[in-house]
Amino acid sequence: MADATLRVFRGDREGGKAVDYKVPVTEGMVVLDAIHSIQAHQSPDLAVRWNCKAAKCGSCSAEVNGRPRLMCKTRMDSLPSDQPVTVFPMKAFPVIKDLVTDVSWNYKVNKKIPPFQPRPGVEWKMYQPDVDRVQEFRKCIECFLCQDVCHVLRDHDKKEQFGGPRFFVRTAGLEMHPLDGLDRTRMLKEELGIGLCNITKCCTEVCPEEIHITDNAIIPLKERVVDEFYDPVTMIVRRIFGAKKI
Amino acid sequence: MTDASKYETHEHDVLIIGAGGAGLRAALEALAQGAKVGVVCKSLLGKAHTVMAEGGLAAAMANVDKADNWRTHFRDTMRGGKLLNNWRMAQLHAQEAPDRVRELEQWGALFDRTESGDILQRAFGGHTFKRLCHVGDRTGLEMIRTLQDRGVQMGFDVFMECTITKLLTDGDRVSGAFGYWRESGRFVTFKAKSIVIATGGIGKSWKVTSNSWECTGDGMALAYEAGAELLDMEFVQFHPTGMVWPPGVQGILVTEAVRGEGGILRNKNGERFMEKYDPKRLELSTRDVVARSIYTEVKEGRGTPHGGAFLDISHKDAEYVKRKLPSMYHQFKELADVDITKGPMEVGPTCHYVMGGIRVDAETGQSSVPGLFAAGEAAGGLHGANRLGGNSLSDLLVFGRRAGLAAAEHAKKTATPSLDNAQIEEAERQVLAPFDRTDGENPYTIHHDLQDVMQRLVGIFRTDEDLRQALAELEKLKERAKKVRVEGSRLFNPGWHLSRDLQCMLTVSEACTYAALARTESRGAHSRLDFPKTEDAWGKKNLVIVKKSGAMTLLEVPRGPMPAELTQILAEDQ
Known about the structure:
The structure holds two protein chains of two kinds. Chain A is of the alpha+beta class. Helices cover about 35% and strands about 15% of the residues of chain A. Chain A folds into two domains: about 5-100, Ubiquitin-like (UB roll) (Roll), CATH 3.10.20; about 105-240, Fumarate Reductase Iron-sulfur Protein, Chain B, domain 2 (Orthogonal Bundle), CATH 1.10.1060. Chain A has ten helices and seven strands. In chain A, the strands form two sheets. Chain A has a five-stranded mixed β-sheet. A two-stranded antiparallel sheet of chain A has the order 6-7. Chain B has three domains: about 10-235 and about 355-410, FAD/NAD(P)-binding domain (3-Layer(bba) Sandwich); about 240-350, Succinate dehydrogenase/fumarate reductase flavoprotein, catalytic domain (Flavocytochrome C3, Chain A, domain 1), CATH 3.90.700; about 425-550, Methane Monooxygenase Hydroxylase, Chain G, domain 1 (Up-down Bundle). Chain B has helices at about 20-30, 70-80, 85-105, 140-155, 220-225, 255-260, 275, 285-300, 320-325, 325-335, 390-410, 420-435, 445-455, 465-480, 495-520, 565-570, and strands at about 10-15, 35-40, 55-60, 120, 130-135, 155-160, 160-170, 175-180, 185-195, 230, 235-245, 265, 310, 345-355, 355-360, 370-375, 460, 525-530, 540-550, 550-560. In chain B, strands 1, 2, 6, 7, 8, 9 and 16 form a seven-stranded mixed β-sheet that branches. In chain B, strand 8 and strand 9 form a beta hairpin. In chain B, about 60% of the residues are buried. Chains A and B meet through helix 1, helix 2 and helix 3 of A and helix 3, helix 4, helix 10, helix 13 and helix 15 of B.
């Protein structure tokens, strides 16, 4: 088979540039294979994260031809062969080196979310139909591609006010757990800033696990916030009887 | 003279190396005991190889098959391991696994359910009953996420993307560890009263492997260098079903759950060949048997176009397959252009797991080095000569917890150790040496050649001649690795990282080959063409590798007698 040209970002926090590499393409090859080939034969210090090579760990996120993708799942033969394949690091996070970005902010946001707390005296019985919708959220492999593509983070860099799709998915998984007894609505509004999301569905489009992030996680959570904080009846009741939960 | 304070230093009661299932479960238990806990891992938190575990977690909960109990699980595990297992570990494992599963559920894990609302269990190779608690085919992800989130909330210190290159000792006990940040290349030291090794396996020494870049045997090599013993290193599990095509995905795991859900193996002539090799258990025979069967079919000319066997689940309802095996469906569709609801997969054996590991006390996970503990794949004993599918995730939980508990207790009665500057200086010199060389080889080339040697000569079937040749080749590779050279800076430099991991891979590869040569019988995953029989005399001893006067030394260690109660269980049949 023919060679492909990969145009890979090489650089660090100080800056960098795209460098072209010629890589022999084999049958069924994915972009991550091509990156490994560059490491083994041309540039051993090319930095990239990866683990499972089977779309289960969410480590090899990058922007391939401008689109946030898992490199292990992106077949070379799905990309135009008459032009260089560009491979750049995720734009929403600071570059450490080459394709490796600093995603530590995500781990900080995760800490803000109160964990699963079973209702007192609960019986440990759950039924598949109730579990199904939560299992969808728990498929998340934390590739952070949804965070990368979200314009609130990518273009407006509102990392101080906004948690991002990944953590709405995580919160939805807790809030909709059949046996969970906590209410995280105030946290969603005030700490994760869910109101900043204007449901453009970019996150859903890039999710490699095909989680319906917007429809199944974000919108129902937004509804809970609206019900609790903006429902006119609740607001009147609250004004009269105080702010206790009704 | 190096001063320890020259480097960033962290101090803990319990330091855990590795953040897969065993490391995280150990951390949670040590935290529960009030210990200050640090967890070091080579990748980001939540990316450890445990996320790749697919089929499930074996525990005799009897939710589906009411007759199941710990005794049957114990017997299945011992028989699967060809009775070479540490019987006490197999007993504790079978007895405690159900509680560990319930605990996970109480921490928020969501398993698939039975109609009556309990945790659903599926069939798996070598298990008498439907025993594997699962979440579709992503059980490991559910487990690691549950443990990770609980740990973050309970408050352990996590040191992500940090590689430990040396265990430090104070007299005969461990005192801490030396390593580098993968991101910056800066050095870091850890001071700890107890250390738990939970670094997983060694599969990256083979060419066709289901293991990620992390599985380079670091913990075993570190423990060996610190004086600990390695047990049963000859037993390496080749999972029968890895992908064989396209080339880039060769070795990637195809979960045993495909067979658990009714998948059938056929050769190119359409014959259901397991009828020949294990007519009773067929596809749900143990992994050693199925792997050898596929290998034999291919070798005798009945393989598929890409040199494997056909594995077919397409006779099941398409929606059912997508629901129970979603990641297999996507994996084949996207990477191999195969729709598994319509046609067969092509599969073949892939290096998957090492039964051997650091020799530990069954109750506590303590190694022969005071203060040094091990759990999970890095520890040996539980699985004997062959591991049953599903017994790994339960192993991580049962013995992760036990090691964490014992490590915390050890820390309580131990004074803060002091770090030895000379050891730190030596560790620093070793790690930096590849930068100083002006000539020498690229680490990727040496790694490639190591994988070739282990794949060719220390694979599924072994002979005296091959193993001796492998040892000779490993000597040459060790010499080449001493002269390895890296380019670039210390900033996130994979070539440099590999040059260090390579040392660990060479140590564990040599231990494996050495033990494989010594064991002149066939048992479980260790198949000798020149010694095809299982010998009673070999069933009475384990092989142990230890460093003596700087050299790798092999010891035969007699096995203690099994208590009458357990002997009785083994004698019972269903």
